[in-house]
Amino acid sequence: MRRLRPLILGVSLTALVAAGAVVAQTAPEAPAAAPPAAPPPAPEAVAPLPVPPPEPAPEIAAEPEPKTPRAPEPPPEPKPPIKRARYDVAIIQALDKVSAETIRFEAPVGQPIRYKSLVFTVRACELSAPDERAPDAMAYMTVDSQPRAVAGRPTPPARQIFRGWMYAAAPGLNPLEHPVYDAWLITCRAATPARAG
Question: What's this model's pTM, rounded to 2 decimal places?
Fold first, then answer.
């Protein structure tokens, strides 16, 4: 055990010197002529880090003078909408669902027009104005169902089956509901002037 002690101390010293520690203690039973340990190397001089120049103090802006409150400006007057152009004649297309017959006919405003057992009376026919999003034709009309008179029988009274606006671009929006006939608006147009003859 006595021989191991100097060996253990030597290994420990070597480890401490390698780690950078300075050991000033000698072993009590160490041999008499041990060379002194070399002093650890002096640490290198470290250059100081450059210090950035101080930032200038922010300038304090002068406080703006308080503004006198103004009366709010009135909103601009909206432009009145452009009126729709009115026409004299509505062009209507009708379908007989039983015979698959279709017909396109003109219905002058204010005059009743008969198609089989239906009587169409157009009250107004208009085309959309230029400032509207989509071009369209619309007509306000009434449609009566009135069977034709049969000889020897009294004429049955007319029954109104439709009253309202029809739209050419959306015929399903306000359709004529009848079990035998369908009808929809095609467009509106001006009446053709009579030719002098």
Answer: 0.56
